[in-house]
Amino acid sequence: MTGSKGFAGTAGWAGFAAMVAAGFALLLGLPLVFDLFGLLQMTVFAAMAVLALSQGFIWGYGGIMSFGQTAFFGLGGYAYAVAAMNMGDSTVPVLLSVLLPALFAALLGYFMFYGRISDAYIGVITLTVTVILFNVVNSTAGDFYTIGNAPLGGFNGMPSVPPLNVPGDPSSPLDPQQTWYAAMGALLLVYVLLRAILASRFGRVVVAIRENETRAQLLGYDTRLYKLIVFAIGGGIAGLAGCLYANWGSFISPTVFGLATSAQVLIYVLVGGLGTLLGPILGAVGIQYLISVIGAQEVVNANLVLGAVLVVFVLLVPQGLVPVVQGLFRRVPGLRRGRVAETAPVEVEL
Amino acid sequence: MALVALIAFNVANSIAVLVLLSLGLGVIYGMMRVINLAHGEFLMLGAYTTVVSANAGLNLWVAMLVAAPLAVGLFGLAVERLFIRFLYGRIIDTMLATWGLSLAVVGLVTTVFGTTVRGVSAPFGGFAIGGYQTSVYSWFVIAVAAAMAAGVWLVLRFTRFGLVVRATMQNPDMAAALGVSPQRIYMMTFALGSALAGLAGGVLAPVSGVSPVMGGAFIARAFITVLGGGPAIVTGTSLASGLFGSISEVATFFTTPVFGQVALLLAALVMIRILPQGITGSGLTGRLLRRSL
Prior knowledge:
The complex is a heterodimer.
Chain A (H helix, E strand, L loop, with lengths): L9 H24 L2 H26 L7 H19 L3 H23 L5 H20 L7 E2 L2 E2 L24 H24 L1 H11 L1 H6 L4 H27 L9 H14 L5 H18 L6 H15 L4 H10 L8 H4 L8
Antiparallel strand pairs in A: 1-2
Chain B lengths: L1 H31 L6 H17 L4 H23 L8 H23 L12 E4 L2 E4 L1 H22 L1 H11 L1 H6 L4 H23 L9 H16 L3 H22 L2 H18 L8 H6 L5
Antiparallel strand pairs in B: 1-2
Helix pairs in contact in B: 1-5, 1-8, 1-9, 1-10, 2-3, 2-8, 2-9, 3-8, 5-6, 5-8, 5-10, 9-10, 9-11, 10-11
């Protein structure tokens, strides 16, 4: 990659600044536009967008095909719920909700990347781990399964998860509007963090590994370690999303580990666009909105629509919407025609 | 003594269920490198075919052993023509597309039949091992699993179709040069694998609750068995079923069925770390079983 294609290019900086500005505008503006219900919905959209970013990062940039990003999502949610019930103050639980899934991802990544198994196997193994977690947590009904003073509740889940509070002051929990600030703030933070990672030397090696793992190895990079770190970062981000999600509804249940949730995350990224960060965010918001619309009527089933969307995109628009739209813009005057076709995801800056 | 016999019987049954669940998937994956994430839904469709046609008055055995594989085999044929054939060689895309298919089928079946659990009662009744009561139907499950594995092996090993399929698997271009159409072979293999899944779903319908989401309960076990088995379809799947079935049944005996499944999946993860290409693909067993089917 040359400098002009990287983060430091003028266009790259402009795009980045525009994205952050738009993010801040939404952060401050939405509470003025939406009523309480709308704002709550936006909060869960933001949480799902964080989850989508984690999948978009490890899949679109790291080339790691995780079918079980919800394992870390659920783990983060449960870690937050259990810790918050035991501790009162929410600061440490939030940190735990990031660290625990990140560590778990690192452990799992060790098995997968150091075993040098193929992409397809990674998909199946991550899927299996999610199913294991679902089965285990689902069977934790009863008083026996209590951590400190937090009953896990089995398939009924854990109701009344304590909300976030002002750091260090458990007596002042956040109201819905402040929770929105927290969720949208987290989304912005994760976006900026991922951009920074991708602009760094580390990020460039990661993309190089995605492009050609053997070549990266021959150049002397330990690709296993890089993938492990990418996977752990993705796990931590998914855990943060789980924390936000548990907060949003004050509730967490084993369905967060379900196959349907895992599929949804993949659909966010695939629809939005692989190899971009904007794509997964837009995909998450769009698909979540679609699900809420479908939920409001009874003619078609949400699974049917989501499944159809997934099949159609894989067959017809495998690169996702954001790259397609960017391609259209690039075709406008001044640019060579042939470039559109060879636009690699590497160049995408949004 | 009776307890040991009972456990042995349960282990055999658990192995048989794994063989049923994974053989269809194994045929499709082993022959075509296509990971069909909708496999669980193929099983579910087989189970629904059995229940619906048996409740409509069809003889249960005909519904189970003829209608279910036929219906799901045809469904598989349609799926292959409509989606899968555009995705050969793109293994991740196939996984995504079949996952989409799986969601869509779950959604469709939910719309048509609702979410209620249906079922047909298991024929034959029970028998006693010492003081323990157990089901005669389990013998039938074991018999069908054995017949299915033997049947696939015999077809691959001794028939002309099996020879052509194996040749296509090894080198599609060479097979095409010799006048075989790989496209046709893939189509037939996919339909065959689907039919096996349908048969398995039919046979398991009386012993498992039939609902639109039942596939999800099977899918992880089926995959992990196929991957654990490695490249030799019948030998690998059977050996992996034997290993994982025993582990899960013994763990179930000492804890709960849930932890039995967890033990199965954990054992599989460890095994894939040790033998990344499965039992018949790597390590000492891989060398011994290199030429098996």
